[in-house]
Every structure is written in C-alpha cells, then in structure tokens.
Design brief:
333 residues, alpha/beta, Rossmann fold, Uridine Diphospho-n-acetylenolpyruvylglucosamine Reductase, domain 3, 2 domains, six-stranded mixed β-sheet, five-stranded antiparallel β-sheet, 52% helix, 16% strand
Length: 333
C-alpha cells in the first residue's frame, strides 16, 4: 500500500473529513507538512474537499522568512489558495515562555484563517514518530491516562477541529515518499539542538531504546496511546453520564455543586473526571490543573473540615460545606 492510499484510508476509517468541506493545511515547509500537502492535493477530489494552505512565521530563528516564502511558492505551484502572517514578538519572556506565546499566536492565526475561509478543520502533519516522542515525554513526566493518549487523530479546540492524517505513518515512510517524488522541503536546524527536551527524547533516548531494548519502540508507544484512548473514551463517556446525573449547575453558570455522599461513593477515577469536567465547564479548560491539585481536592472531600477551601489556578474556588462540595468560579463574597 502506498503512503497516499494509507493516508486516504486513515482519513476515511477515522472519519476525519466530511465531503464538501474546505480544510486548512498547516504547512511549516518541513518534509512532513510538504508530504501531507502533496498527498491531500492528489486525493482532494476523491474526498470531495477544498484545500487552503496556511503558514505562520514565528520569527524565532534565522531563516523563518525563507520558510515563509518557500511555502508561498509551494502553494502557487499547486494552485492552492494561501494565507500567511508573521508574529511581531515584543515579549522579553524566557525562551520556553516565548515558544508557548508563539504557539498561542499560531492558534489565533489558524482561527482567523478558518473564519475568513469559512472552514472548521485544520490539518496537521504529525506522524507516528511524533506520537511516540509525545507519549514517552508524558510517561517521564508522570502523566495520567488523559496525557498518555498523546495526540488524537481528531480533536476539537476553540471551535475548530484539528486532524492528523499522518499519525499512523512513520517518519521513514515520509522520507521514502519525499525521495521517490523528489519533493523539496525546508529544514529547521533547531530540530537537532539537544537543548530542547523533546529533541533529547528524539535524538538520544529513543535511539538508545531502539538499539538496546526494542527496535519497534515507536510503533509500540503509538499503539499504547491508541489502547489508552479506547479505555479513556469509555471512562469519559461514563463520567459524562455521572456528571449529568449528579452535578447541580447554577443558573449563572458560575457554580457547580455535588452532594458529598454521592460523590464519595464514586470510584476514584470517576471522582477525578467529575472534578475535571466541573473545572473545565467553569473556566473552559483544565490548564495548569495538576494531579497535586486533584489530590488536594480529594483530601478535602475525605478528611477536610467543614467550610475548608481549596484555591485552584484560574480563580476556581472549591469549598466543602456540610454535605455539599461547591466548585465556583470567581471570588467569594
């Protein structure tokens, strides 16, 4: 099976695209995104989709303007509509923080392009190798089930659907496709700098595991993420049912209450999901919510005194009040 056929089958089997829709391809100019663009260009009529290329210049390194021009030329050669923008960084934050700011700006850019083009789907070029790196990183950081799912083939974020059609394909397959089709691409020199944690995983740790422990480690890590996703999806479905049954949401949508006795009867995994759902419902995400925070809330539920309070990032306040656990957004009066 060719990579083109494999990608088409992956899209269809995972129901990533809808016939008739316009999709935005996020193209950096690297081999992965160039390959993805060429494959989608070849199968666009089979899938009945319309393509639009988007490139965001982060302006974080020398050569980023050349990358931008390269992607523009690629779009012109393929006669695919093109949008681009550049980040005018005025931040004095540390490098790690700057990269996070750049990521946020890129998401804003995708939202703007999607709105302008009447599209709801962003296509990204992450591969099985990227998935393996992500899962291994999260194992080393002690992530739970949600984190070990890694990157999802299809994910909703800020009203957009992000899909990854190459997630089932390896970097070796990409390289073979590039060579066979004589594709030009850009190389990001920072990918080889071991000062970045992900790069050290890719350059040092994964090759060591491949050589001394398991030559198939990348595929195994990718399979791990798939298996965990199946189990997590079921748990999440049950938790949503429990949330609908037990959560009492205030009319102003600022407070969620649970009867403590019913909450305490839930399995620990269900309790944690209910807490996460509640926080996500109130603030729109669970950013900066850690396992330590969840453990603190569980301690409050089990042993905390009456009227005890736990303060969480994002101005979320949790209070145990007699027979009720209250989860509230905003300062208490």
């Amino acid at each position: 099976m060719t990579l083109t056929e494999k990608t088409k089958n992956y899209i269809l089997s995972n129901k990533l695209l809808t016939p008739g829709e316009k999709v935005i391809i996020g193209v950096s100019g690297g081999p992965d995104s160039v390959t993805l663009t060429h494959i989608l260009f070849k199968i666009q009529y089979d899938l009945d989709i319309r393509l639009h290329i988007a490139h965001y210049n982060h302006n974080l390194r020398t050569g980023s303007k050349t990358d931008q021009d390269f992607v523009r030329e690629l779009a012109q050669k393929l006669n695919i509509p093109f949008s681009t923008d550049s980040w005018k960084n005025t931040s004095t934050a540390k490098k790690g923080s700057i990269e996070e700011l750049a990521r946020i700006q890129r998401l804003k850019f995708f939202n703007e392009v999607a709105k302008q083009q009447g599209a709801k789907t962003i296509v990204l070029a992450h591969t099985e190798d990227d998935q393996a790196e992500t899962v291994l990183m999260r194992i080393l950081r002690g992530s739970g089930l949600n984190g070990l799912r890694g990157m999802l083939p299809k994910r909703m974020l800020n009203g957009l659907t992000f899909i990854r059609p190459l997630l089932g394909s390896s970097r070796k397959e990409i390289e073979a496709y590039v060579k066979k089709n004589k594709l030009l691409f850009r190389t990001d020199p920072t990918n080889n700098q071991s000062i970045f944690y992900r790069n050290r995983i890719r350059i040092n740790l994964l090759p060591l595991i491949e050589k001394q422990y398991s030559s198939n480690i990348k595929h195994l890590l990718s399979n791990l993420s798939k298996n965990i996703s199946v189990d997590f999806d079921y748990l999440e479905l049950q938790a949503k049912k429990a949330f609908k049954k037990y959560a009492r949401i205030s009319k102003n949508n600022n407070c969620i209450k649970f009867e403590l006795d019913k909450l305490q009867k839930q399995h620990v995994s269900m309790k944690r999901m209910l807490l996460r759902f509640s926080i996500e419902h109130l603030k729109g995400n669970t950013n900066r919510l850690t396992l330590a925070h969840i453990n603190e809330i569980e301690g409050l539920i089990l042993k905390g005194p009456n009227n005890a309070i736990v303060n969480l990032p994002g101005n979320i306040i949790i209070q145990k009040c007699r027979k009720v656990l209250s989860i509230e957004r905003g300062s208490r009066i």
